Amino acid sequence: METMKTGIPIALAASPRLFGTFALALCLIPACALHPERKQTVEERDFIEYVPPEERRDLDEQIAALSAEIERDFENAELHRRLSVLYRLQGTPRGRLLSSEEIERAIMLDPGNAMYRVEKGLTLAARRFVGEAEAAFLEATRLDPRCSQAWFQLARLERDEYFRTMSHPDHLAKAIDLFGEALRRNRKDEETLLNLGFLHSFRQMHRTGLQYASRAALYHPRSARAHLLCGMLRTKLKLFDEAAASFASAFLLMSDEELGPYENIAPLLPRDETELYLSSLPAKRDDWNRRFWAEHDPTPATEVNERLLEHYARVLAADWSLSNERIDLDGWESDRGAALIRFGPPDHTYYDLGSGTSGAWVVWSYTTPGGAMRLYFNDEFLNGDFHFPIGDHYGEVSRRLLETAPQRYEYPLAYAAFPLGVEMAELRGADERTRIDFSLAIPDSMRAPSSGRWNLFLTFFDSEWNRFSRNRLTLRPDTLPVIDKPAGRYRVYSGAIEMLPRELGCTCVLELVSDPDRKKAVRRYPLELRSMHGRSLKLSSVRFTIRDDAGCGDALDPVPLYTRSEALCLGYEVYNLKAGADGIFRYRVTYAIKKPDSGDADAPAGPRRTLAYMWDSIRGGKRGEKPYAEASFEQRADAPAVSDNLRIDLAALEPGVYLLVLLVEDLSTGESAGESRRFTVAGRD
């Protein structure tokens, strides 16, 4: 059958009815192939860039003024070029078509101008005629090999093709080569330097990339993007202090809107917390962010949070590589961007062309302890946005994994974790300070490194997770005393520090690190830092102590785990007692051992309880159960501050977790104070 130049069979063209039937059949094919239940419609607005109304009005006014000037000087090629640019900036299909016509007129008037070919290529690229755009850029390099813009735009085409799926490294290699050509012709161009630095990171050539990024920051010190890229690459190179400084420099140059993606932790939160976070007021989100990053700091003892730096680096990677200007989609908001921020770059990437109706597929695969985790992205609407397909099994599974799978991050310097027992107690210190006794239990199986010394960091955060104190100590595990417990043998390190009390609660993060053999233990311990001075009755923390040859010793027991054949040794201090008429200080001590209620603090020491709670505990708690052991007795002292010790037999207790509640009452004033602490009775001796 003969065909016309249009490719339509002559017989069909001659018969309108037959042609209409044929066209209808062609239209129906995409709707019924592979996914008949899914509407695969590509609409014109999918290819319209968003332009703010005020900018659109300004463009229209400039176009009208320039068109009038062209009527007076039609042979001016530069005027046609400028009008072509304005039409292209409108971001509409009609605007791009008019842009093509104007740049063709400019080329006809000045065929040897390489920049006009570059403008033609930009317009063709905006119309998605990538092959024709590439030809226009190549023609520009032929006309003027020194035209850096032509080389730059050729490199952009290859870069964008790589970013589309991140599955074809040949496009990455070509992009780097072409950006290199552009840089040889303009050695200080910011965009060229940034692209070279960023693209080298995809080859894991972070040091080379940092050289380009550093040059961009040197030549353009007010460029936030240059400092951001330096921060990302320094994070990859584990230069964390320098990376933090680079990000800080960048953020000072950015607006609140630009900072938003970097401060947003929604991609890292569990599904049930995400909506609450996003709907919170800015002040509440700031507080949430501070707490989140304090809890996800792999090295709390240092000023730098390496996990936070990695978050910044991932947001940058998502924004620069996955943004889609054509549909006004920022990379960090896309499904692939959310996955990149939460899980990091995939271990493997797979690409499938798909079909003409369902679009191409990209699969990201991650290796997890439970096996491979795969996320499926589909260019469902044929507009370059690879997302979790709507109404598709693979899309639903992928979204569920994104919302429920734990975030993926490994501290770049691998340390072997080991268990660490910790107990802390608050007592009166000197000069209105509070003394904090602490004791660590290190498994005896741990061997001291060749250096012989380990570093112990104690970092204190207030209730808003602001760091207010940091202490560094050194110790030698092989010189520490050993204690035997039902759970094993431990080496014990005890110490004390003093600081001013604080009104609200705080958290102490303890890190015990052996750098030579890469071992580290981290524990978080809640405290109150109460004032033990003043005039009212004060009671120190209850201190379970380690038994020594003479009986109950003074060292704080870091592992409050005992057998029934042992006695529980505890110490406490009472301050600000008032003397009676005879000058004697009298007080009553009451203690009870009970099972913890569900409302009791989960922390070993627990927050300080009100007296009402303490008295309720003495009486058996919410369930009204009789304590397993209790006693009350009066004491005398010749000073307003006393230090007491108790020894309690555990033979009557069954294995389990118990709460010891201690109350002290000043018999002269009627004032009372109480404290509590948990301990465990083992199931075997």
Question: What does this entry show, briefly?
Answer:
The chain has 685 residues and is of the alpha+beta class.
Q: From the structure provided, what is the oligomeric state, counting identical versus distinct chains?
A: single chain
Low-confidence stretches: 1-48, 601-614
First-last Cα distance: 97 Å
Largest sheet: 5 strands, mixed
Structural classification: alpha+beta
Q: Give a count of the beta strands, DSSP E runs of length 2 or more.
A: 22
Number of helices: 20
Radius of gyration: 36 Å
Order of strands, main sheet, comes to 4-12-11-7-8
- What average pLDDT do the residues reach? 86
Shape: elongated
Q: In percent, how much strand structure appears in the residues?
A: 15-25%
Helix content: 25-40%
Explain the overall architecture.
This protein has 685 residues and is α+β, with helices and mostly antiparallel strands. Among the domains are: 255-413, no CATH class; 416-533, Immunoglobulin-like (Sandwich); 535-685, Immunoglobulins (Immunoglobulin-like). The chain has 20 helices and 22 strands. The strands form five sheets. It has a five-stranded mixed sheet, with no helix packed on it. Strands 13, 14, 15, 17 and 20 form a five-stranded antiparallel sheet that branches. Helix 5 runs antiparallel to helix 6 and helix 17 runs antiparallel to helix 18. The protein starts with 9 loop residues before the first helix and ends with a strand.
